[in-house]
Structures are given as C-alpha cells and as structure tokens.
Specification:
single chain, 230 residues, alpha+beta, five-stranded mixed β-sheet, 34% helix, 14% strand, globular
C-alpha cells in the first residue's frame, strides 16, 4: 500500500509539472502570436496609407496632363476647411467629380493617430502643403506635399519599413529643424521650411515618415508624400 501511495503521489507531481510547463508554453505562444498580429496589423495600416497617398499623386499628375498648372491645384472639399481660393474652377479640384474624381478618405483616428497629440495643428486631417521642400528632391523650391501629421510611432516606422527607409536606433528618422504642418495650399508656394536637411534617411525620399525635432517636437511622428516635386 505504501509503495502504491508513493507511486500515485509521484505521478501526481509529474502531472503537475507537465501541466505547468504546458501552460507556460501556451502563454508564450499566445504572447508571440499577439505580437505578430500587432506587427501585421501595423503593416496593413501602413500599406493603406501609402496606397491612398500614391492614388492622390496619380490624380494630381492626371490633372497636370489635362493642363492644370501647379498653382491651380485645389484640395477644396466639404471634409476640410482652408483650401478654397478664387483662381480655381471645378476643373482643377482634386475631390470634384468630373475633375480629379478623388474621394477624401478621413484618417482612422483611433488606429493611426497619437491621441496624446490631439491638440496638434490639423490633427486627424490630411494636410496639403506648398510650404515645405524636401532635401535633394528637385530644386530648393518647396514641393506640393500631402502630410499626415501626429501619427503613432510604430505606424510611422512600419511605413518606413515598407518604403525601405532605415529606422535608426529603433526609432523613425529625426528631422533637424522645423516642418510646416499648418499652412494649407491655396495656389501659392512659399519656401518656409525644409524636411530632411541633415537627415540622410529622409533626404531624397518622395515619401516617408519622420520624427519631429523642434517644431513639431521630438517624440511626434509625421508622414509625407511628394505630390509634385519642384
């Protein structure tokens, strides 16, 4: 009887150890699976942003082929304010049927945006700007840019991964100086800020995501797409 009791206790202890090991292995698998899913989700979100930006670029160049000049491009839409100007008729409006025929896609605030920056200028909006130049793109004249400011860090880095842009030190490339995220394009180009100066990862890139330095501040992240290089 004593031998049988000892054997039973031994088997119970073995079962407890095996169960604990199995439980640990399953928890590790679930943790790794959650990390992989989070990474894949960010990749999908980054791809969605890039696809929309590229579609916008294609639309802008289509209007140029139709004879619309750089200064006639209009991003007027009922979804945004500040883009109306008199020199543009319906034929030069990006978001108007029969002209650009482009739909305005409101950014996914919950998934894409850094909610800690919700007081930032143009937070939760696509910004169309003629006040920033990109180093080593065209001349020193400002480009026509499409900007999504104040996005999440990991999404910013996922965008750069898809574009083949290095994220140094497990962070997005940091712009040195300032970028204008406030001024909306209404037909006038003003060379006020430069993106990518002193930042080799961003210099010469027609799309990418950078970390602010001064204005916007360090620890904030911003996507850009060149629509027209000048």
């Amino acid at each position: 009887m004593k031998n049988e009791s000892g054997s039973a206790l031994f088997y119970i202890l073995i079962a407890v150890v095996l169960f604990a090991g199995l439980n640990f292995a399953v928890s590790q698998m679930n943790r790794n699976s959650a990390g992989d899913m989070s990474h894949e989700l960010r990749q999908l979100q980054a791809s969605e942003i890039l696809q929309y930006a590229r579609a916008m670029k294609t639309t802008v160049h289509g209007l140029k082929i139709d004879g619309i000049t750089n200064t006639q491009m209009s991003f007027e839409t009922s979804f945004l304010t500040g883009y109306t100007y008199a020199s543009c008729g319906n034929d030069c409006k990006i978001f108007t049927p029969g002209a650009g025929n482009m739909g305005y896609a409101t950014p996914n605030v919950d998934a894409w945006m850094d909610t800690g920056q919700n007081g930032g200028t143009n937070y939760g909006e696509w910004v169309f700007s003629g006040d920033n130049s990109i180093t080593d793109i065209g001349t020193a004249a400002p480009e026509l840019l499409m900007i999504l400011p104040w996005i999440k860090k990991d999404l910013c880095m996922a965008i750069n991964d898809l574009l083949g842009i290095t994220n140094p030190g497990d962070d997005a490339p940091q712009d040195t100086g300032s970028a204008d995220l406030a001024t909306k394009f209404t037909g006038t180009f003003t060379a006020s800020e430069t993106i990518g100066g002193g930042d080799p990862e961003i210099e010469g890139q027609r799309a990418g995501c950078f970390q602010g330095d001064t204005a916007p501040a360090t620890g904030t992240y911003h996507f850009f797409q060149v629509l027209i290089a000048r």
